[in-house]
Amino acid sequence: MKILAVSDMPCPAYYDHYAPGCLDEYDLILACGDLRRTYLEFLVTMAKCPLVYVRGNHDDEYIDHPPEGCICADGDLVTVNGVRILGLGGSYRYRQGECMYTENGMKWRIFRLLPKIARHRGFDILLTHAPARGVNDFDSLSHRGFQCFRELLDKYKPRYFVHGHIHRTYGPHIPQRSQYGDTEVINAYERCVIEL
């Protein structure tokens, strides 16, 4: 399975300079937040494969006007093409906003999902907007990761942890791919291709 992961900034090759057929190779698209709904709707229409998304910290409008034709995994565990995807959107709370959480707020969201995770016997992909604490995050409150994401990785050992929020343009040493235990960590800023 070939997966396209996107986050934070539209990829010009798939939008501004779109060429018919350039998305045909993908079996699934994962969107990690902070992308306009029109962009997600364009991708799901042109790719003709499922698009699963979580909300970013700037995606409050998605609550009332979600992207059409897309699958919301935010605060849920969804199975698409046999792949179990646990979605936890939003960022660490640094101001008022519907898609921002304290550490305890995110822990509560995870706690409510534990029965579903148990029924599915874990998950293959952890799909988030924010990174995990100490894994691709910054010390600043606005780009701090969640410790409870690390706890999920430690306990369930998913194959992939796909996140956004940490723009690779923030500095030269921000990795697109890294490893945390048994899990490959993908920073999906703009785009990244995953072979599952």
Commentary on this structure:
The structure is a single chain. This protein is an alpha/beta fold and 196 residues long. The chain has one domain: 4-Layer Sandwich (Purple Acid Phosphatase, chain A, domain 2), CATH 3.60.21. 19% of the residues lie in helices and 26% in strands. It has helices at 37-47, 103-119, 147-156, and strands at 2-6, 28-31, 51-53, 71-72, 76-80, 83-88, 91-92, 100-101, 125-128, 160-163, 177-180, 183-187, 192-195. The strands form three sheets. A six-stranded mixed β-sheet has the order 5-6-9-10-12-11. Strands 4-3-2-1-13 form a five-stranded mixed β-sheet, covered by helices on one side. A two-stranded parallel sheet has the order 7-8. Helix 1 (37-47) links the parallel strand 2 and strand 3 (51-53). The radius of gyration is 15 Å and the shape is globular. It starts with a strand and ends with a strand. The model has no long low-confidence stretch (mean pLDDT 95).
CATH class: Alpha Beta
Based on CA inertia axes, which overall geometry fits? globular
Q: Judging by the overall fold, what is the CATH architecture? A: 4-Layer Sandwich
- Summing up helix and strand content along with how strands pair, one would put the structural category as alpha/beta
Number of domains: 1
Helix content: 10-25%
Share of β-strand residues:
25-35%
Major sheet strand order = 5-6-9-10-12-11
Total strands: the figure is 13
Q: Alpha-carbon distance between the termini?
A: 5 Å
Computed over alpha carbons, the radius of gyration is: 15 Å
